[in-house]
Amino acid sequence: MQELPELDIYRAMLAERFAGAQITALTIHKKGMDEAAKTELIGHVVGTTVWFVERRAQHLVFHLDNGKRLLVYVPYEAYAFCGSGEKKKDSKAFATISFGDRYVTFYGLMPEHILTMSVKGLEEYMKVNGVDPLDKRLTLSRFVERFSKKRSTLRTALLDTGLISGIGPVYADEIAFAAKIRPETKLQSLNADAWERLYQAMGSVLRDAISHGGAGEKPMFEGDLLTGGYRERLQVYKREGQSCMRCGGTVQKVTAGNRKAFACPSCQELIE
Ligand SMILES: [Zn+2]
Hints:
Elements lengths: L3 H15 L6 E4 L6 H11 L4 E7 L2 E6 L4 E5 L5 E6 L8 E7 L2 E6 L6 E4 L1 H8 L13 H8 L6 H5 L10 H10 L13 H20 L40 E5 L2 E5 L9
Helix pairs in contact: 1-7, 6-7
The structure holds zinc ion.
Protein name: Formamidopyrimidine-DNA glycosylase
InterPro entries: FPG_cat, FPG_N, H2TH_FPG, Ribosomal_uS13-like_H2TH, Znf_DNA_glyclase/AP_lyase, Znf_FPG/IleRS
Cofactor: Zn(2+)
């Protein structure tokens, strides 16, 4: 599961390891990528030095010293692993970026998920993505302005990547719980107090998840003790039938916008 916190942790780990390092090879293990696109991609990347790594929406962006940006879109089920020495043959790997004898391998990508762009091209490309929930410019009033136009349920809106980026099923449920609002509540029913709770919950849940290692299931390197540390802190996600740590009620599966969600009906209010 890769949502904003997990990607933010990836970004930090990749920057720590590879900022200042030279890319010595880029290997696409899977078939399916257009040969010309592959040659161009490798030509843009190999021999460059990574200045730093940034997260933009659901992407990792490597800033290269030739002015290009190497983008890796990380879908929900994808993951990455960093290692060193000879890489064992691995049929599940999609692409490996090598830095001398160190490398990062990405799993679960599609050919269109890895590409290079100019700085200007990247800005254009990012316009289709929703606002970043941790962007300082996203004030409470801007958040309300953006969300209140939607006629959907709270959960559907949080998962709408054109509206806001980086929130998937795990954090949508956790944010709704922290805000004490049922995920199936219609946005149009929220009052000022509920909007503020939702806004605060979004920031605090995501930041808390980042600081506790996120909810990722796969370690990013051998001996990685940080990744997944937030899983034991999840309050409702996949805790159906267990007791609510806040009120002692029972966490249940509910339906929000035709999809399943997890919530505690005793302490999350269905605002109508
Ligand atoms: Zn509860």
